């Protein structure tokens, strides 16, 4: 779960001109343990974008998969606000 924030920062640096982001909610489902040496892949899908005062509010659908696992180790909905 901690890796999601660093991944979001990379996405923000690449695609957004907003300078600050605030996580409002992270609703995780189907969370399972991950081995320390496991390779992971995350898929971030932008579900909604709403204009708010001073920025935008987004909802991301996130799926994190682990190598050699039949099911995702995390499925989450992430609500983030980006401000100027």
Question: Could you walk me through the main structural features you see in this protein, from its secondary elements to its overall organization?
Answer:
By secondary structure, this protein is of the alpha+beta class. The protein has a single domain (2-83), classed as Thiol Ester Dehydrase, Chain A (Roll), CATH 3.10.129. Helices cover 17% and strands 54% of the residues. The protein is built from 1 helix and 4 strands, in the order αββββ. The protein has one helix spanning 2-15, and strands at 20-29, 40-52, 55-66, 74-83. The protein has a 4-stranded antiparallel β-sheet with strand order 1-4-3-2, with helices on one face. The longest helix is centred in the N-terminal third of the chain and has 14 residues, at 2-15. The radius of gyration is 14 Å and the shape is elongated. It starts with a helix and ends with a strand.
Overall residue-averaged pLDDT value:
82
Under the CATH scheme, which architecture would be assigned?
Roll
Give the helix proportion (percent range). Answer: 10-25%
Number of strands: 4
Alpha plus pi helix count = 1
Which residue ranges are poorly predicted, with pLDDT under 50 across at least 5 consecutive positions? Answer: none
Overall body shape:
elongated
The number of distinct structural domains comes to: 1
Biggest sheet statistics: 4 strands, antiparallel
CATH C-level label: Alpha Beta
H and E string: HEEEE
For the largest beta sheet, what order do the strands appear in spatially? Answer: 1-4-3-2
CATH superfamily: Hotdog Thioesterase
Question: In angstroms, what is the radius of gyration?
Answer: 14 Å
Strand content: over 45%
Structural class: alpha+beta
CATH topology annotation: Thiol Ester Dehydrase, Chain A
Oligomer: single chain
End-to-end Cα distance, whole Å, is 26 Å
């Amino acid at each position: 779960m901690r890796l999601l924030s660093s991944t979001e920062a990379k996405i923000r640096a690449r695609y957004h001109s907003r300078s600050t982001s605030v996580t409002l909610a992270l609703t995780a489902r189907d969370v399972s343990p991950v081995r320390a040496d496991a390779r992971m892949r995350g898929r971030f899908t932008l579900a909604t974008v709403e204009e708010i005062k001073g920025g935008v509010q987004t909802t991301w659908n996130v799926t994190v998969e682990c190598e050699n696992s039949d099911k995702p180790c995390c499925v989450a909905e992430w609500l983030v606000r980006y401000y100027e």
